[in-house]
Amino acid sequence: MIRAKHILEEYLTLFTRSQFSTPLFLNPSRSELRELGDAIRFIADSSQKKLYAGDANVVVHPDITKVLNLKSGGPTQLWGYARRRGNQYVLTGSDSLRHKIDLRDLYGDYVEEFFGYDWAWVNKYVNINPYFEFVKNFMETTQIRHSNLPREIPL
What we know:
By secondary structure, the protein is an alpha+beta fold. The protein has one domain. 30% of the residues lie in helices and 29% in strands. The chain has helices spanning 30-35, 61-67, 95-102, 104-116, 129-141, and strands at 10-17, 20-26, 39-45, 50-55, 77-85, 88-93, 126-127.
């Protein structure tokens, strides 16, 4: 018997800042992602396998949590910034994770727990592999305190 996993793809709301607006999507399809432009901000929740996304030029992560009434933070969430490269989006930065890694002498348990979760499902929407590889290599090769992980990695 073949069982298909059904992932809910849903338009959630229209977020507006000044004269600009962006749709906010839950687990967006490829065509919905293309509607968001060349850069997106997203929150991926590993505990629920949900990804919320909007146009990075309009919305910031706290906007997403407020408008959608989401609990914010925690090691089960990846707050990311991704740029479109060809036909896919590639994770280039995560301010929330960057802060925890730069101060991992204080947040070491958080970072370890974060990387213990399954994040592979996010690759359906955003290629996270280059960023995760960069971050893990960075942590292995830098001093713990004030390591200054770049805000965005080059692609």
